[in-house]
Amino acid sequence: MRGRVRAVAPAPRPPWAREERDFISSCTRCDACIDACPTAILVRADGGFPAVDFSRGECTFCGDCVTHCAPRALLRPAEGDAPWSLKASIGQACLAAAGVECRVCGENCPVGAIRFRPRIGGVALPQLEAEACTGCGACFAPCPTRAIVVQAPVECDVPTESEQ
Ligand code: SF4
Ligand code: SF4
Ligand code: SF4
């Protein structure tokens, strides 16, 4: 029997990037997307290929990177196509979970995907609605403890200890 084990996710590609293998074979590492991004969140990553760095800001889904990608490594086939499968999640370093009042992530979410549920005898806790989250990354940098992770679900078949 084999188990499903979560692996470490690589830095995300720009929005509307083609499937990774096709992206790598078509991207010429020209930097045009990096230069075009108005929020400057695109950086040269491993091998000179572009990736998103949410510590620099958020994606507004303007599509300027796609427009400037001549070899179509970034490709939006139709208006309304999802830019990526990225979602935010809140980890154990969250201040509110430790009893410290903090609502910074919710205040910075442009789509209201993070709401705070009042608690009797404790500070309000964040609740992230995954369906509403666009993976824009706006909540990542402002979080004082970097408790937020923005990534695509990554799973691989690895035997777990009990299965070996
Ligand atoms: S969609 Fe716009 S904001 Fe987002 S990475 Fe591309 S250029 Fe930058
Ligand atoms: S514009 Fe396209 S080809 Fe150029 S670095 Fe960006 S993704 Fe690669
Ligand atoms: S990634 Fe964007 S949409 Fe998702 S919770 Fe954070 S700020 Fe909101």
UniProtKB/TrEMBL annotation:
<comment type="function">
    <text>Could be involved in the maturation of NapA, the catalytic subunit of the periplasmic nitrate reductase, before its export into the periplasm.</text>
</comment>
<feature type="domain" description="4Fe-4S ferredoxin-type">
    <location>
        <begin position="124"/>
        <end position="153"/>
    </location>
</feature>
<feature type="binding site">
    <location>
        <position position="62"/>
    </location>
    <ligand>
        <name>[4Fe-4S] cluster 2</name>
    </ligand>
</feature>
<feature type="binding site">
    <location>
        <position position="30"/>
    </location>
    <ligand>
        <name>[4Fe-4S] cluster 1</name>
    </ligand>
</feature>
<feature type="binding site">
    <location>
        <position position="139"/>
    </location>
    <ligand>
        <name>[4Fe-4S] cluster 3</name>
    </ligand>
</feature>
<feature type="domain" description="4Fe-4S ferredoxin-type">
    <location>
        <begin position="17"/>
        <end position="47"/>
    </location>
</feature>
<feature type="binding site">
    <location>
        <position position="27"/>
    </location>
    <ligand>
        <name>[4Fe-4S] cluster 1</name>
    </ligand>
</feature>
<feature type="binding site">
    <location>
        <position position="65"/>
    </location>
    <ligand>
        <name>[4Fe-4S] cluster 2</name>
    </ligand>
</feature>
<keyword id="KW-0479">Metal-binding</keyword>
<feature type="binding site">
    <location>
        <position position="33"/>
    </location>
    <ligand>
        <name>[4Fe-4S] cluster 1</name>
    </ligand>
</feature>
<keyword id="KW-0408">Iron</keyword>
<keyword id="KW-0677">Repeat</keyword>
<comment type="subunit">
    <text>Interacts with the cytoplasmic NapA precursor.</text>
</comment>
<feature type="binding site">
    <location>
        <position position="59"/>
    </location>
    <ligand>
        <name>[4Fe-4S] cluster 2</name>
    </ligand>
</feature>
<dbReference type="GO" id="GO:0005737">
    <property type="term" value="C:cytoplasm"/>
</dbReference>
<dbReference type="InterPro" id="IPR017900">
    <property type="entry name" value="4Fe4S_Fe_S_CS"/>
</dbReference>
<comment type="similarity">
    <text>Belongs to the NapF family.</text>
</comment>
<protein>
    <recommendedName>
        <fullName>Ferredoxin-type protein NapF</fullName>
    </recommendedName>
</protein>
<feature type="domain" description="4Fe-4S ferredoxin-type">
    <location>
        <begin position="48"/>
        <end position="80"/>
    </location>
</feature>
<feature type="binding site">
    <location>
        <position position="37"/>
    </location>
    <ligand>
        <name>[4Fe-4S] cluster 1</name>
    </ligand>
</feature>
<dbReference type="InterPro" id="IPR004496">
    <property type="entry name" value="NapF"/>
</dbReference>
<dbReference type="InterPro" id="IPR017896">
    <property type="entry name" value="4Fe4S_Fe-S-bd"/>
</dbReference>
<feature type="binding site">
    <location>
        <position position="69"/>
    </location>
    <ligand>
        <name>[4Fe-4S] cluster 2</name>
    </ligand>
</feature>
<dbReference type="GO" id="GO:0046872">
    <property type="term" value="F:metal ion binding"/>
</dbReference>
<dbReference type="Pfam" id="PF12838">
    <property type="entry name" value="Fer4_7"/>
</dbReference>
<feature type="binding site">
    <location>
        <position position="133"/>
    </location>
    <ligand>
        <name>[4Fe-4S] cluster 3</name>
    </ligand>
</feature>
<keyword id="KW-0411">Iron-sulfur</keyword>
<keyword id="KW-0963">Cytoplasm</keyword>
<feature type="binding site">
    <location>
        <position position="136"/>
    </location>
    <ligand>
        <name>[4Fe-4S] cluster 3</name>
    </ligand>
</feature>
<dbReference type="GO" id="GO:0051539">
    <property type="term" value="F:4 iron, 4 sulfur cluster binding"/>
</dbReference>
<keyword id="KW-0004">4Fe-4S</keyword>
<feature type="binding site">
    <location>
        <position position="143"/>
    </location>
    <ligand>
        <name>[4Fe-4S] cluster 3</name>
    </ligand>
</feature>
